[in-house]
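Action item from last meeting closed. Structure (98 res):
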């Protein structure tokens, strides 16, 4: 998994490439915990995300809870396979997906 970070006026955009699973989720969790203290909007660009596991879902849920207290969070460019996981787990109702 590759994560590219882009900051712009209180917005942090994380572009995720590859697989977000048990092996890679801790890396994303670390970035969310360390890089979002002063962020009002967190954007996950999922254009190149191919797969997400329950570990990845847990990281997104924790990020959403954190951002509910200090701003907003959204996911963009979610592929059909990942969207299907969001829909089956009910995450499509919890997360803002554009």
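Sequence:
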């Amino acid at each position: 998994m590759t994560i590219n970070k882009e900051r712009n006026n209180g917005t942090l955009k994380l572009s995720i490439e590859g697989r977000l699973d048990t092996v890679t989720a801790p890396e994303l969790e670390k970035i969310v915990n360390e890089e979002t203290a002063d962020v009002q909007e967190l954007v996950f660009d999922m254009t190149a995300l191919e797969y997400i596991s329950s570990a990845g879902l847990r990281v997104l849920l924790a990020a959403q809870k954190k951002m509910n207290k200090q701003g907003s969070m959204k996911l963009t460019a979610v592929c059909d396979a990942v969207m299907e996981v969001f829909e089956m787990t009910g995450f499509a109702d919890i997360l803002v997906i554009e």
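Note appended to the action item: Residues 54-70 form the longest helix (17 residues).
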